[in-house]
Every structure is written in C-alpha cells, then in structure tokens.
C-alpha cells in the first residue's frame, strides 16, 4: 500500500486550478476581444469569498454526530471554506454563479471517508435519514455533475474521496494497478512511476481531476489515440452502494452475461461510489515526440486522421484544429491570439514509446504526406505540449474581462462528422450572434471521432441565460445531427434532457430500474444522469 507524498494546492474557489498559476490576458487577446467580439468589462465584478451567500445548514446535529462517529469528527467539515469549495464543479456556468455570490447549491457538510467500509456505513446512514449524497472527486465536472436536487431531503453532503488516495497494489505480470478513487492524476502518475508504469491519461483537467471521477464520467485524455479512453483502462472496480458492495471485473474480458462494469462507468455517482479501481497500466515511455502538420483544410486534415485511425499506424496523440482554431492559435497556447498568417489547419501528432517510435513516426509521416500534409517539425508540437494545461487558466481572465468562454464536445461516425461540425457551429452562431467558434478533432477511432468546440462571445446583460440557451440549442443540434451529446464530459444535470432524447424512454426506464435497485431511497446524486 503506497500513499502519495505531495498534494496539489487547493483549487481556486472561483475559477480554475492553482491560484499561483493565474494567467493574465495577452495584449493580442485583449485587442481581439475588443475589435472582433465587442467584449466590454462586466458591470458587476466578481464577489469576494466572504460575499458568497450560503444557505443555512439544515442537517440536524444528531445526523452530523452520527456521520462523525463513522469517519471521525475531524472529517466532517461544516466551515464555509469547505462548503464553498464543494459547491458545483468548474463549468463556465458554475464559475459565473459562484462569482456572482450564489452559493445556494453548497452542501450542508463535507464528509471525508477513509475506507470502503466507511463509505458503506455513510450511505446506510444517509439513506436512513434521507440525506442526499454527492460523491466528490476533484470537483472538475463541467456538466453539473456535483449539484444534488434538495427537494424532499433532510440535507446534502458532499462525499469527498480525497482520503482514499492509495496505490493498493501493482500486478507487474498482468500490468494492472489497484488504486483508490481519490488519487489525482499527478499523484497517481508519481506512484506508478515508482514501478516504471504510467496510466497514459492526460486530460486538460489533469492537475486536479481524480481516478474515480474519470471512471464515473468516462473521461478521455489527450493521448487517447495511443493509451485509450479511461473507461478502456478500467478492468475491475469495487463500488459501495446503499444496498451493499459490488465487486466487478474478475477477468480482462468475459462472456458471463452483460458487463456490469459498463453500468457503473459513466454513472456519475448516481448508482454507487467507486472505492477502488483495477486499472490497466503501460510501461512509462522513454521517448516522447510531438510535432505539427499543416493541412489545406479541415476536410483534408480529417481525411488524413481517418486514414491513420483506420489503416494505422496510430500515433499516441492525434488532433486537428479547424481553420478558425488554427488562426487564433488555440493549439499553441504560447502564441494564443497571435493570428497565424498562414491559412489551413494545424494537426498535432505525438508519439510516446520506446525504440519503435522512430519507425512509427516515419510510417505515419508517409501517410500524412500522402494525404496532403505539410510537416512543420517539432516546434508546434512542443509548444502544444508545453501549454496543454494552461488554457483553463485563461478562461478565468476572459470571464473577468467580460467574455463568456466555454467548451462543448460530441462524437460521431466519420461519415457524419462534417454535418455535425456544421450543425454545432450554425446553432451557436444563431444563438449568440457572432461568437468565435473554434473546433478540433480531439479523439479518433477507426469508425469516427470526437469534435471539441471552444466558444468565445461577449457577455450579454444575462450571461447565464445567454449561455444556457445557446448550450440547449447546441445540444439539440448535436442530437439532430446524429452525434452523441457527450464524448467525454458526461451527462450530469446539464445534458440530462439531451441524453434522454439520445437513449429514448425505454433507455431512461432501464437506468431508473438500476437506480431503484441500487439506491432505493434515491439519495445518490439526485437529479444527475436521470431526472429525480
Ligand atoms: C478545465 C477543464 C478541463 C477538462 N478537460 C477534460 C479532458 O480533457 N478530458 C475529460 O475527459 N474531461 C475533462 N474535463 C472534465 C472533468 O475533468 C472530467 O469529467 C473528470 O472525469 C472529472 O473528474 P473529477 O475527479 O474532477 O470528478 P468530479 O467532478 O468530482 O465528479 C464528476 C462526477 O463523478 C462523480 N464521482 C466522482 N468521484 C466518484 C466516485 N469515486 N464514485 C462515483 N462517482 C464519483 C461525481 O458525483 C460527479 O457526478 C475538464 C474539466 C475542466 C474544468
């Protein structure tokens, strides 16, 4: 059993990430916002921490004492700091609400269990007292996955899994590691590095998101072409539910009926709390090379990526920015807003591995060249790798400057991708007037790919309503164009209606049936995934 030696700084309560890394807006971006989007400073600046309005704690002292008896009184927190930091997630809407002083979704208490058995006991108590429970990993949900419906409940607790942060064991022969859900990615990587392994999961939320959150929301990292999505990495898991324990995954693959792991993956805390994961690991690579390729158009670049995804060789990182994103420089955060003069679309192609990297790179280069790509060398790739986690810090500065910036993502089959790309852009433009809409192919498969959109627009007098309406219509456009409402962010509350449209009434009934069996009193994340 190994525990991490370092923990990251607590996340900024009103924005993203480590407060020490707050980013100023480059002058080029300020000009762009003013001249292109007519962005003006907001009339009301963000509130200070002390001005966030929290609802009074409704949980009775008796219930709080019982929770404390399970985890130890020091692990039940009622202070404003803990409550504010466990209010919602990190979507732009979440940030706007808290910056406006709205702490109405704050949990009554934050409870930190230290073992699977403690989680089981907490769930039993909360069911008995009808207390809603929000499993809380890194708090980086961008789909409203951390907001519980309060109606009919005696109160809400955030079940923070940070103390479940051990590497339990490594099976070097099977190349799997059993790890606890509260491990943040840097901690997990550090522990695995001690054994020469890596997970290879590098989402943009890398610094703060946890293993449990990745499994619960079916996350996908920036190197998914090579290492796979997080749900591909999960070979086993233990889940605490109000009805008892589920131990899933006794073999890598099985024909023994439907795979119940798939019921828990993506269930976003609505069916149970993941208390340990058995994960496939890879040997930590000795070589990493990232490079840039330019294509004449998004269509040409997409065809090249499809060719690699279908015929191989498949690089570890494979992404392609559309013309607008290439022009703004989003794929090269160090030069953001510099308005690249050469037209076309930038692809970032990365290789991680060992001796085979050289040959792989040569074979992939031949395919990319034959598909019309122009090699740009490693400089754009290194620039991308250097700035890959910095964009979320800029979002805070953009918000403060009066711009709404948000991302949304989908996936579809290759044949439907152009239609999906057009449909989302059209919908965002018709809702928002003249926003800046950028897109890249973020994850590729043999049969299709994921499209990841970044939208920047001037804030209206009601920025929350403005984005809610735009997001609703974009989700409808995605479903109508045959895409999925989420490739890797999950459902939460924000995508609930669109998800229901995607799976149909019968699909929702199946989920409701599972929930009723595992969580008969409906205490787990009420309102997330399916309507309460
Ligand atoms: C700036 C930014 C960048 C992002 N980039 C990416 C990206 O590149 N790729 C990507 O996939 N996602 C990305 N995300 C989304 C987010 O990081 C992922 O959804 C991630 O999986 C959430 O992990 P978390 O630990 O923060 O979970 P949380 O946000 O704490 O929880 C997410 C959901 O899972 C539930 N949950 C958490 N832990 C458990 C558990 N142990 N058992 C059961 N349920 C649990 C919660 O109740 C909630 O519904 C990004 C988010 C932000 C803010």
From TrEMBL:
Domain FAD-binding PCMH-type: 103-284
GO molecular function ontology, one term from the record: alkylglycerone-phosphate synthase activity
EC number: 2.5.1.26
Top-level class of the enzyme under EC nomenclature: transferase
The keyword Flavoprotein appears for this protein: yes
Pfam families: FAD-oxidase_C (PF02913), FAD_binding_4 (PF01565)
Keywords recorded for this protein, A-Z: FAD, Flavoprotein, Transferase
Cited PANTHER family: ALKYLDIHYDROXYACETONEPHOSPHATE SYNTHASE, PEROXISOMAL
Family the entry assigns: Belongs to the FAD-binding oxidoreductase/transferase type 4 family.
Protein name: Alkyldihydroxyacetonephosphate synthase
